[in-house]
Amino acid sequence: MSDADGTWVGLFSGGKDSAWAVYRALEEGLDVSHLVTVHPSDDSYLYHVPATELAALAAESIGIELVDVEPADFEAESVRDSSVQGDDELEPLEAALADLDADLEDGIAGVTAGAVESEYQTNRIQGMCDRLGCELFAPLWQEDPRELADAMLEAGFEITIIQVAAYGLDESWLGRTLDRDAIRELEAKHEEYGVHILGEGGEFETLVVDGPHMDRRIDLEYETEWDGTRGRLRITDARLE
User: Fold this and answer.
1) Long-range contact list for 143-152, CB < 8 A, 24+ apart?
2) pLDDT digit string, tens, across residues 5-54
3) Quick check: helix, strand or coil at residue 233?
4) Of 56, 81, 147, 241, which one has the greatest count of Cβ atoms within 10 A?
């Protein structure tokens, strides 16, 4: 895809969308040398929030080095121009990528991202890539959600729902595998309640526990937390099989 020098970096939470972007980049022959996981606050507008600590297990299974970014790790003034847009959440990520770009022999050629329909997310990541002088690979962007879901399942992704927060989704969805039956039910929920089939609006969050790009499956033990309208898995143990 790119003739630029340098390697690629995957923006990676462990969820299905960022994992699909990394998988598609590898399928395209892009040299993905690092994954970067941001551990955000609970009310993040930009990032996938729950269970990001599990990204380390996923990265180990994929076999790509992971860089963890804690927002408190970086000072805003180290980032070029992003504060002009008021993108406080983007600053630690951009600082981490700038540091990685400087450390890599040929720098960063591009960044992968799993945005589907969020212009808020995509515009900010594109602006960050422009400032860093690298490309953006966003293979899910404006693609049909059902076709994306089918493609993930056909490729062999095993996807676990780890959080739900939408009218129409009850506690039974926690820990459920996002398989073809679940997709059909989500289509019905979309018609009835407006739930996005891929959870793009935060209706649900996921973890890819296995896939063709992973050497070992992630085995989870958990308890469910449910407050009557939303809930999540509280992971008690996680390991690579």
Assistant:
1) 143/116, 145/116, 145/196, 145/197, 145/198, 145/200, 146/183, 146/187, 146/197, 148/20, 148/116, 148/198, 149/178, 149/183, 149/197, 149/198, 150/183, 151/20, 152/16, 152/20
2) 899 999 999 999 999 999 999 999 999 999 999 876 554 443 343 456 78
3) strand
4) 56
Measured distance CA(111)–CA(18) in Å, rounded: 11
Residues 44, 95 within the same domain: yes
Whether residue 60 sits in one domain with residue 87: yes
pTM: 0.89
CA distance 132 to 128: 6
| 22 shares a domain with 85 | yes
Q: Are 203 and 196 in contact (CB under 8 A)?
A: yes
Based on its alpha-carbon atoms, the radius of gyration of the chain, rounded to whole angstroms, reads: 17
Q: Residue 207 belongs to a domain with what CATH number?
A: 3.90.1490.10
In a domain, 1, yes or no: no
What's at 203, amino acid-wise?
A: E
Which among 154, 213, 215, 234 has a CA at the least distance from the CA of 12? 213
pLDDT at position 3 over 90: no
- Examine the domain organization and report whether 116 and 158 are in the same domain: no
Flag whether pLDDT at 104 surpasses 90.
Answer: yes
Can you give the residue range of the structural domain that contains 221? 145-240
Element (H, E) at 116: none
Number of domains the chain is built from: 2
